[in-house]
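#struct-help
A.M.: can someone run this one for me? Single chain, 193 residues.
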Amino acid sequence: VGILIADVADKGIGAALFMTSTRTLLRAYAAEHTEHPDAVLAAANSRITADTHGGLFVTLVYAILDPATGELFYCNAGHNPPLLYHASGKEERLVNTGVPLGVFNDATWRVEHVQLEPGATLVLYTDGITEALNKEQAQFGEARLCQAIHQAASEHSTSRAERVRLGILQALERFTAGAPQSDDITLMVLARH
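D.P.: on it. Structure tokens below:
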């Protein structure tokens, strides 16, 4: 299963079109390089840098998950590090393995591997969550995000992935308390049973 979360470094129509074309390229190259996330990013990046000169770039995490074994191979192109919570309670960040797409024509990405064992939860998010501001202009931050994940994972209702997703969004809503949203908020939560 291919997993992708991305964020373009600007706002407006130009950025939206840039993200749309990036998405199309990633989907095409993912079909071509089914087991090599680094090859997908390299091919898409080569095309992006050849065709684009507007200074736009995209941060992203592209991962390939084997649902049967829980093996996850990923590349992180300058994106917020996804948070992996092991069943043991250990927290792990899926670190950057290269630069954002659209920066350097000859960029390469290192492939990393993690194991999602039964009971593990993986949280992928954009900076619209950690950089969300309250009325005092304070950021939600990664510490509050981690706290929301821990609290939601300990509750006993609906599925773990749904609990964590709702817990993060509710904590974010309480924190911002009606302050205007300044960036997009994208969140993906995977749990292995």
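A.M.: thanks! The CA atoms of residues 114 and 120 lie 11 Å apart.
D.P.: also worth noting: The radius of gyration is 17 Å.
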